[in-house]
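Co-fold these.
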Amino acid sequence: MTEPVLKVSDLSVSFRSGGRTVHAVDDISYEVRPGEVLAVVGESGCGKSVTSMATMGLLPPTATVTGSVRLGGRELVGASEKELARVRGNDLAMIFQEPMTSLNPVLTVGRQIGEVLRRHQGLSRKQAAERAVELLDLVGIPAPRRRVGEYPHQLSGGMRQRVMIAIAVACDPSVLIADEPTTALDVTVQAGILDVLRSLRERLGTAIVLITHDLGVVADIADRVLVMYAGRVVEHGEVHELYAQPRHPYTNGLLGAVLKPGAEGKRRLPEIPGLVPSLEAQPDACTFAPRCPRATERCTAERPQLDRAACWHPHEVEAR
Amino acid sequence: MTTPTTPTTSTTALTSPTRARLARAAGGTRTRALLRDRLALTGGVIAALFVLAALLAPLISPYDPAQADFENALAQPSWSHWLGTDDLGRDQLSRVFHGLRASLQVGLLAVVLAFVVGVPLGLLAGYYGRFADSTVSRITETMLAFPFLVLAVGLAAILGPSLLNATIAIGISQVPAVIRITRAETLRLKNVDFVAAAVANGGGDGTVLFRHILPNAASALTVQATVGIPAAIIGEALLSFLGLGVQPPEPSLGVMLSSAQSFLAAAPWMAVFPGLAIVAATLAFNLLGDGLRDVLDPRGATR
Amino acid sequence: MNHYLLKRLRQSLITLFLVSVVVFAGVRAIPGDPALALAGEERSPEALAAIREQYGLNDSIFEQYWRFVSHAVTGDLGVSARTGLPVDDAIVGALPVTVELALLSLLFAVVVGIGAGVIAAVRRGRPSEWLANGLALLGLSVPNFWLGIVLVLSLAIAVPVFAASGYVPFGVDPVDNLRRMVLPAIVLGSGLAAVVMRQTRAAMLDSLSADYVRTARAKGLSRRQVIGSHALRNSLVTVVTILGLQLGQLISGAVVTEQIFVLPGFGKLTIDAVFTRDYAMLQGVVLCTSAAYILINLLVDVAYSVIDPRIRLGGAPR
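Predicted complex below.
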């Protein structure tokens, strides 16, 4: 097995605001290997986006980040803004949920792609423009030579997300973080974007961290899954294994609705009774206990450690 | 001109970084708001003192502002004349007090005039749209095509220079801004549920305009008024300085500055104190206005 | 030329027409005999009759208006009652002074205003922000004619670095020209600088929290690139608009500034015309000023259609 290209260990993120401290991410670890797609799933506010922003070093100064993010041989937690800037867009790239607003409205698409090439690869203006055309072609934009001179408002949402991907992969990064890349797009457009991601992984060997709450997307493209709940990892594993036999009651709940007959087409996360706990409290307990059908006294007294699932009463592996 | 707004999702759907960003912004604004409060309060107190000084000018002035005293002409500030005297030996402090009267009088009247003309036109344009709107827009644009001073100069030429005509010129120059704000507020409110409901329930145009729209546009208009008053104070001083407003020997801060120009080297205090009075008065009103804007018009929609 | 600019051009022409009507009507609205007004000091019956003949005051009001406009278009604005010289000559003579003053103060306002605005937005919550904000508030509250007096007191009388009055054409003596124009330009530009600073700051705060700035950071661009080519570039649209709206202020300010520093420009011409009741001159000056103002506003619109492709390419402006 190849060495992991990105290794996140014991990453915690907390925010100070008005004297209170909010723990958004609590002690999470994961790694990705070249050419591998890792999906991070969970409800809104479970900390998956904070995790990716922390990995990129893009959190505001009010955030406290501890733990370690190693990319290749480099430690990113605590690195200076200058060092981070050399890595971002170069070795480690990211695409965002909002394709409509993530591109600068007053610069041409070509300029926005070229910028990253000139910055990291020292290309000339002309070389960068040439390369921008190739990249647009790579992400499947028709008539790239014309499109390169256009402005974002002339492109559809799906096209803009493709441009975002072109920017992200311009310098052939070893890791691409995709934060809900298809959420804001029409279902028909989503498939196209996923195809682009898949082909990048195959052709360039890019490792992809895919953040999503769409379990259908996960089944479609991911190799491994990390399930997050309230800032913690509750379960992880190979996608087929985890889908076939979820151990954690939360994962089970998530998948339940998807796999239930009659729920065809409803691929979004189902409602699980109860509320996501406030991120301020950080009890010595399983954070899912208040909503868990299997919870016992132990679950509210002691925090379960992550094995495959972080649970005191996991579902048994059973032969179906 | 609108500012780009980030799409607002419901609070529950906010991801944590967004929430954290909001929290940070709130934390930042709290200190800001506190400081703003204090500044606004200071501004309010100073503005109130100026109003008081203007109202009580005849009582608190140590001398008659028109009384010449050639023995004491161009006297430096001293215990008997706190702010010195001018070229005719008139007491500067007394003249500043009386000058403030003119400033505030013009400030208030001009703003009232601007509202009396501007609010109905703005309501008309915003509520009826189409032809009314384009007509009012053309009127506004024509008014804007005359820079304030050119307008004032033209009026002074036609009607003769006087305080009243200066007031009219200043008032007219503020009409376009009032129209614009009233129109924008009307457009916004026309589509708000409770106004739409009033229309649906058969409320007449008059009822809807004056019972529903105008009261809700009040905060934006109040903010405009607090911007308008200091602008009018400066306008009065400016016109009087050029000889188009208050006519000497009547005291006005602008007139005082105008006569000070001939004695800059010999009696700089003649220029310094009336100017400081104008600056302090406008600064006070501006601070008060900024504070009010934060409270009344959180969207900052006064462009 | 696209649809948007054509529309703006049409609007401008309509406004210009309305302005000419107002100016024409304004002079006729002066109480009393317009011939008396146009005559200035020369008031013999013969002179008045000559003026009635010259200005066609016996014709119908429409004919008079038509003559006024058709003459104005060819640059004939009548004869000054005070000097007896053509009004257009006086205007052409005063133009360079005012244009130089306006350009210098615009330069001052843009450089200082945008610079301070960017600093205030980027260094949010630090002393430099409060300093910039404080200066802006002061700039808005200090009337420019008083600032002029104070600057003359301090930099021309107490420490004579600059000259306080008079004009020397740039072509004749550039150094002396600037020595005389620097103070007026600062005086005229300070208020505008304050407005530009506030708008720049607000627009920068908006764009700094925008998604595309996050993208720019995620690309690994340097702080300078993120601020300069992404955040500032977007903020300029707002700033240019504000500049356009403030040009009227600049023209008003020019009148006063020229008065304080005794510069023989447009403002001086205007004020002198009022006090000498030189109505032909006043009519000409006001018409030209307003026409220039309308033209500049049109140019501003062109300018931001260059900055913002959404306007240029006919997309929805925001």
